[in-house]
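Our preliminary data section would be incomplete without showing what the modeling component actually yields. Below, a chain of 199 amino acids is followed by its predicted structure, encoded as tokens that our downstream tools consume directly.
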Amino acid sequence: MKKILIALAATLISTSALADTVSLQNASFEINTVGNWYGYGNVAAGWSFTGSGAVSHNGTPWYGNTASGDYFAVLQNIASISQTFSNSSAASYTIGFDMALRPYYSTGQVVSVSLDGHTLGTYDAVSTGWNSFTTSAISLAAGSHTLTFSGLNPQHASDTSAFIDNISMNVASVPEPETYAMLLAGLGLVAGVARRRKA
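Predicted structure:
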């Protein structure tokens, strides 16, 4: 009987979790208008760029080469890239991404990651090799939300850049009250059947 109750609870919660998965559009910047070169501004599908935000192909004067794919985003000095997405119900999110420092130029670039203006973390671009990062979690209600990566250049360097690639959204659903009600009703039903069998 305990196994049945546990299986029922797991099924209800996992079903809710699967319904909330959100994928970002063009999360590796492979869909763009820069060809075999690079470009500033809104050059990648799904993303908005401000300041010196850019997309580059491998092997350009940015001196970057991705671990996978042919393109990466650039946050030069004070710049940002952002994307707006929608989720159908409340969920908790963490953001994963790869980052590298531009070789041969100033160090000191720091990247802030935020959802709806709430900072999930700040990350120092200290290595010219690609490293993977994951933000702290944030819970969001259903609706439209905006993910932003911002280059901060806190040391006011003349030219410092972070490369960003392979952005992912990792979603863990927060069950809504209706889910808990269904779970309790199901557990009550199973408990009632168990009592009748004993009687």
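The chain is about 20% helix and 40% strand. The radius of gyration is 22 Å. Preliminary results of this kind motivate Aim 1 of the renewal.
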